[in-house]
Structure formats: C-alpha cells, structure tokens
Amino acid sequence: MSQLRLLPSRLGAQASRLLAAHDVPVFGWRSRSSGPPAAFPSSKDGGSSSYMEEMYFAWLENPQSVHKSWDSFFRKASEEASSGSAQPQPTSVTRESRSVVSSRTKTSKLVEDHLAVQSLIRAYQIRGHHVAQLDPLGILDADLDSFVPSDLITTIDKLAFYDLQETDLDKEFQLPMTTFIGGSENTLSLREIIRRLENTYCQHIGLEFMFINDVEQCQWIRQKFETPGVMQFSSEEKRTLLARLVRSMRFEDFLARKWSSEKRFGLEGCEVMIPALKTIIDKSSEMGIENVILGMPHRGRLNVLANVIRKDLEQIFCQFDPKLEAADEGSGDVKYHLGMYHERINRVTNRTITLSLVANPSHLEAVDPVVQGKTKAEQFYRGDAQGKKVMSILVHGDAAFAGQGVVYETFHLSDLPSYTTNGTVHIVVNNQIGFTTDPRMARSSPYPTDVARVVNAPIFHVNADDPEAVMYVCNVAAEWRNTFNKDVVVDLVCYRRRGHNEMDEPMFTQPLMYKQIHRQVPVLKKYADKLIAEGTVTLQEFEEEIAKYDRICEEAYGRSKDKKILHIKHWLDSPWPGFFNVDGEPKSMTCPATGISEDVLTHIGSVASSVPLEGFKIHTGLSRILRGRADMIKNRTVDWALAEYMAFGSLLKEGIHVRLSGQDVERGTFSHRHHVLHDQEVDRRTCVPMNHLWPDQAPYTVCNSSLSEYGVLGFELGYAMASPNALVLWEAQFGDFHNTAQCIIDQFISTGQAKWVRHNGIVLLLPHGMEGMGPEHSSARPERFLQMSNDDSDAYPAFTKDFEVSQLYDCNWIVVNCSTPANYFHVLRRQILLPFRKPLIIFTPKSLLRHPEAKSSFDQMVSVQEVSTAATGPNLG
C-alpha cells in the first residue's frame, strides 16, 4: 500500500501532534456531492471531522472517488469493524445510525493507530542511533549523552507515547513505503515491527542519514539496512575476515615482542580497521576502481603498510634498525609517517589495483586536502570525470576529526566542480579519547563525525568489536560512494589498548576506562570463538593461521638485517617513473633555454586580446583591457599579466597541463588577469581563451577556490604531487594570507624532500608590496621563507659548468622576487624545464601590474634565458 499522509484532522490530539512532527506523503481525493452525516463523532479534543471525514464519507458514497489505496484501506477497516460487532445488526433506522457511528469510530481509531506506527518507524530511523550499542567497552555513550529519546526507551513507554496499547502489539499493521523491514510482506504485527526496527537501528550499527534531503538516497540506505537477512556472510567470507584479523593482530604482537621499547602507534583495540579497509578496496575494485589513494594519521600506519598496501615486511622492520642515522636519505621523519606506492593484484577480484599511502607529518588532518588533490589529478590525467577508476580513502582520529578546521575546509571542497573527487570514504578510528583529553572536553558536538553532516554525507557508526557488522557497513559505504559519488563516513567506535602510544601510561588520566580495557577480551579471540562455535572453522585451523603468519614475520625479520634493502625508493608515494632518468641514465643537470619564438609570442598575444567565441558579449571595461593588450602586441611589449599569459600558453603548446587556483584567480584580485570571460547577456556563459590557442594543446584549468588557504593549498600540493609534467600554481588573495596555510608550507613544502625525498613543483604566487595597505595587504613575509631555506651561509658551493642549476638542486625551494615581466615569464617556464622539481615561491607585485615602466620587450623573451636576473634560491637579497 502506498504511504499515507493526512493533513491534520479530527484524528485526535495525539495523532495531530504526530502528524505535525513527522512528514508523511499526501493523497488527495475527489470532492463529494453531499456533506457528512451529522452523527459522525468529533475528536476527543473537540476538533472537527474535516479532511478525514470528508474522505471517508466520499468513499461511502462512491469508492471510486478516493485513491485506490484508501479504497482498500476503508474496505478492510469496515470489514474488521463489522466482524467485531457482537450484536446482530438492528433493523431500525436509529440502530443503523448507531452502527454506522460505531463503525466509523473504529475506522478512525485504526487510522490513528496506523499513523502512530508510521511515526514510530520514523522515530527509529531518525533517532535509533542514540540507543545503539556502539561502545565495545560498554561504559560510554558514543554520542556523549546518556539521554534516551522518550519514544524509544521501553516498549511500554513507546506504546504510551504513540497512544497505543499492549493489546495492539499483536495487531497487524500496513507498512509504509518508507520502510523495508517487511521484506516481501506488506503487513506485520506491531510486536514484529518493533523487533525488526530494534535489530536494524539499535544493535551494533547506528545510522545517521535522515538529515539527507534526497528521498532516493534515504530510500537506498533504508533498503540496505532494513531488508531482513541482508547482513549474511558466507563461510568463505567469514574465514577471510578471520584471516585478516589474525594478520592485523599478530603484526602488532610481533612488533611488541621485537621492539618493546619503541613507539609504533599500534592498532590494538581497533584491529578491525585492517579488514575494514581491505573490504572497501575489494568492493571498490569489484566496481571498477583501479587506483586507491589513502591518507591517515600515525595510528595503525605500519599495519596498513604491511597488511593493506602489502609492503614487504622486511622494508618495515628495517626502519626499526637503531643504526639508521638521521642524516640518511629520507630519514628526516619517523617510520610511522612514511608513505608508499604499490601496484598489485587484488586477490578477491583478480584485478590489478594501485595503492598509494600519502606520507604526512604529525599534523594529523593536514594530509586530507593533499590526498584529495592527488586523487583529483589522477582522475584528471586518466580522463576519469566520474571517479569510476580513482578514489580516495581518508582515515581519521575522532579528536582530530572534530577539532581540526582543515577537515571542514576539505569537506567543503567535495562538491566544487574543480575540486570534487566524486566521493571519499572516511573512516574514523573513534578511540573515544584524544591523547589524554576526555571527548566531553574536546568537542561540542554529540558525535566526532557531525562535521560531515554539512555536505549531507551519511554517517554509519559501528561497534568495532563486531567484525561482521563492520564489514557490512564498509561494503555499503563503498557502494554508496560508487552509486552517488558522494562522501560517506564510517565511525569505528573502538578503544586504545595501550594508550596514546606504547610508552604512555593511560591509567594516570583514564583509570576506569583502562580497568575495563584490561579486562576486555580481544576482538580476534571473540570472533574466533564465535566461528569455532558455529563450525565455520576449527580450533586447529585457527591456530595454524596464526602460526603461518608468525612464521612470515620471523622470516621477514631475518631478511631485514640486510642493509642493501634499506633504500628510500621503497617509500615514495608518487614515484614519477621515467622523469628522473633518460634511457636508464640520470638526467643531465642542465636547463634548456627558456625563451620562445616571436611567432609563438604573437599568436598567444592575439588570442589573449580577443574573444574566441562568436556572439559573446563582454563588459565594455574589459573591451578596453583587450584593446590595450592588442596595442602591446603591436609594440612588441608585455606587462605582467600578458607575460604570465604567454608563459602559460607556451607551456600548453608543449603539452604541459597548467592549473591555477586560489581566491578570485580567474579575474585576479587586482583585476589584471581576466583568464575567464563572462557573457554580459547570458547567465553563466563563460569563455577561457587560453583553451583556444592550438587544436592539440594541453588543457588549461583556472578556478576560483573556496575562501580557504589551508585546505586549497594542500589540495594543489597534492595535485602537483601526481605528475611532474604539469605547472600547478596557487595564488594567495594577498601575500600575507599564506599564514593560514602555514602548516602546509612548514610540514609539506619546505621539508618534503628532506623528510620523504618528495620532489614537488608547486608554485606559490604571493602578492607583495609595501604600498600602505596595512600589514595584511602589504608584506608577503619573504623573511619567513628565507629563514626556512636550507642554505648554509658559511659555505659557498663549488663553481661548476652547471653551477646555477646544481645550486638550485641543493635548495629545499626556490624563492624569487621578479622585477620585470620578462623575469616572471622565464621563471615560470624554467620551473618546468628544470631536470628536477622544487617548490617555487614568487613574490608578485601589485602596483607594478599597471606601472607604465613595468613592461618588457619581446627581445627579452625570445631565446634569452633570463635566470640570473631573477633573485633565486635562499640567497634572495
């Protein structure tokens, strides 16, 4: 039967209140020809009969005048009312009227009860997660609130709240279309309805999704979780799950035995995260995903490297070698921050899959936008506009997910056209503690995951001590991402068995929690006992699985003592094959001339001063700017904006993708760039002339960003990480605004090569000029970048044939303050022509953008390599 929805009527105070609180579809009916009988009883609160009476009386006169679902409903109600009468029907008119009144009263009560049941179902869907059994320790409420909704406390309370009686428990009720608990059945007893709702919403899975404003998406989630019998696993799937839990737990046990005094930020208490990640990857691979990019904090990273990415164990174990010196290449960061890139066969789907775990520092969520940028770039280069081949997975800690603002910034990039990665699966390792800080002191929201609600991402809370519930949720999360191309959050409610790290003493600050943790049976033993009891595996098989993995670890430990295996190439998350070598030999330390022919300059200039689309009406002020550009081309000169245009355009001709992003970069903060033209008469019709230079050119992407520096700079850094054959630039609205992205600059850009041997060609454009506009709008703080340069002021490099290029190679980044447009042109081109990649920091002008003397001749841009005229490297004066 179709879902009912009545406008508030004479259904009584309780029913009217429920209808006002819960949203249910309306079916209208055709008007009738006469009024309702005066004898129809009024509601107990004195309200009029109105709509319900109208529909019922219309049906009495003509069953075809109402919707067929109401016809069926009223027929059934009348039959029940008639069969329930103990007295024979009287023949007098008076008794007949009383019988009609009695029948109508019973019908009205039946309708009220149906509406109450629908409201009860909806209450479970909306608030059931508040009473779900999510904490494996059984001592905390995952939502920081011990309050239980009054309509979900006990069966008796529920019945009273909805004006139902215990006698109603065994009555059959029609199920609405907004639930799937009936399976193939259309009606269920109230007792069975409550039982099924409890099993779906109040056990080890808590679902938050009813805030999503898309009916189709809500129905999809309901079907996945409410349909009876959906959470069933075959014996083979259970055995695989057990084997993955064995690997997860025994890896941590092995490290604890071999290096008992080393920090490793192990996964004890959330060992289920390993099979959870593998399940998401398996399901995604099955649906066509070929490349998965992961970002995560330090907890469990070594386990993920070993058992998800499948990095050779000896490569992990050798990182514990005490003889590893800090001066060794790539040893600038600890082992649980390192990244990895690996291509392998997925044994479940027998498809090749590439896995990349992005290296990151202890700044926890700082890696989020970096992963998204790298994912976007991989999708772009593969032509994967829908994200069907490349996806990202982000693992978070509960305290960081709620506390770090970059999480919010990253979420708000998720649906922007130039930043979307078509959905990310977020896994929150919910330790229910942040180092030593109780969650009640660490966040104001009920759950650590509430930030995800801003983008309508469904949130699946799950008890991490129920491996099968976790696996089911992860399967659904992967399907959601593939189906709707939207973010989804899996909240693994777990605990930390050993505290913040292996050297910590958590009893100082959380004594009661850790008394319970010390008594807690590990998830592996609980699940193994369950499978042994049901006959899925035998005790001998379980012990053999443990012995097999222990043997693998011991053999790898023996091989880890071979110093030859210690090489940084095994720890690159973006290896750039073929870039550093030509025909197997290292590239020459030379830089080709950065000038280009005058024909190319003229062609780019002519496009930059025109509108390539016919019938495209531009602003009159912009017409003057384009005419000014045309005049400069005739005079063989360029200003700052035109020099940039020519540098970009010439690289596009050579097949180099150029991407420029930041706040207001399309027009330019100072109204000088105008790379995107807007039709003045057709809304949202735009033109990017740079994409009309040559038929076979590389694409140019220019995009205004959200009002974010931290998140967007991290995104562009990740984008530049994916390929060396792209010029990726981020421009601050004003130079000093980079201070809110300082974490990305400090932790990734200035130190990335020292820590992870990560080359990156990201370009930062920082408007700079002491022109009286206040500290935030004047200085881009060049002193900060110079202080973070790795130059030794007491050591002068030896002069060689390739002195300048070699000197740049030894820098952690290149810092320039150009004085002419030609310098700017050559510096941008050199960034791509160099045989290596270094971050480039450019202090761009403001007043010089239009200064009549700040122009360069074509002669300075044709075949002249203007490198030495630019102040470069850490010796910027």
UniProtKB/TrEMBL annotation:
Q: Does the keyword Mitochondrion apply?
A: yes
Q: Which CDD domains match?
A: TPP_E1_OGDC_like (cd02016)
Q: Which domain of life is it from?
A: Eukaryota
Cite the entry's keywords alphabetically: Calcium, Glycolysis, Magnesium, Metal-binding, Mitochondrion, Oxidoreductase, Thiamine pyrophosphate, Transit peptide
Q: Provide the Transketolase-like pyrimidine-binding domain boundaries.
A: 638-851
In terms of Gene3D superfamilies, this protein maps to:
3.40.50.12470, 3.40.50.970, TPP helical domain
Could you tell me where the Polar residues compositional bias lies? 80-90
Compositionally biased region (Low complexity): 91-105
One GO MF term on file is: oxoglutarate dehydrogenase (succinyl-transferring) activity
Metal-binding as a keyword? yes
Q: Which GO terms describe its cellular component?
A: mitochondrial matrix; oxoglutarate dehydrogenase complex
One GO biological process term is:
glycolytic process
Residue ranges of the region described as Disordered: 80-105
The reaction(s) annotated as catalysed by this protein in its Swiss-Prot or TrEMBL entry are: N(6)-[(R)-lipoyl]-L-lysyl-[protein] + 2-oxoglutarate + H(+) = N(6)-[(R)-S(8)-succinyldihydrolipoyl]-L-lysyl-[protein] + CO2
Cofactor(s) needed by this chain = thiamine diphosphate; Mg(2+)
Q: Where in the cell is it found?
A: Mitochondrion matrix
The UniProt record lists the EC number as: 1.2.4.2
The family assignment reads: Belongs to the alpha-ketoglutarate dehydrogenase family.
Share what the entry says about its subunit structure, partners included: The OGDHC complex comprises multiple copies of three catalytic enzyme components, the 2-oxoglutarate dehydrogenase (OGDH/E1), the dihydrolipoamide dehydrogenase (DLST/E2) and the dihydrolipoamide dehydrogenase (DLD/E3). OGDHL/E1-like isoenzyme may replace OGDH in the OGDHC complex in the brain. The presence of either ODGH/E1 or ODGHL/E1-like isoenzyme in the complex may depend on its tissular distribution.
What's this chain's function? Answer: 2-oxoglutarate dehydrogenase (E1-like) component of the 2-oxoglutarate dehydrogenase multienzyme complex (OGDHC) which mediates the decarboxylation of alpha-ketoglutarate in the tricarboxylic acid cycle. The OGDHC complex catalyzes the overall conversion of 2-oxoglutarate to succinyl-CoA and CO(2) while reducing NAD(+) to NADH. The OGDHC complex is mainly active in the mitochondrion. Involved in the inhibition of cell proliferation and in apoptosis.
Question: Can you say what this protein is called?
Answer: 2-oxoglutarate dehydrogenase-like, mitochondrial
Species the sequence originates in:
Sapajus apella (Brown-capped capuchin)
What phylogenetic lineage does the species belong to? Eukaryota, Metazoa, Chordata, Craniata, Vertebrata
Gene name, per UniProt, is: OGDHL
